[in-house]
Amino acid sequence: MEIDAFLDLVRRRRSIRRFKPDPVPEEYIEKILEAGRWAMSGANGQP
User: Fold this and answer.
1) Is 19 helix (H, G, I), strand (E, B) or coil?
2) Count of beta carbons in the 10 Å neighbourhood of residue 10
3) What pTM was estimated for this model as a whole?
4) For residue 9, what are the contacts with CB-CB under 8 A and spacing of at least 6?
5) Largest CA distance in the chain
6) Cα–Cα distance between 31 and 35 in angstroms, integer?
7) Which of 2, 3, 40, 47 has a Cα at 20 to 30 A from 9?
């Protein structure tokens, strides 16, 4: 990605303030937690 395209993307980004009332499936939550568990940590501490 070129720097100009990246800067344009950063300038146009928006935060979401309204969320859907739909429940999040349990399997999605498990996958998100698993991804966080495998994410890099400071000094590879992975508590």
Assistant:
1) coil
2) 8
3) 0.48
4) 1
5) 39
6) 6
7) 40
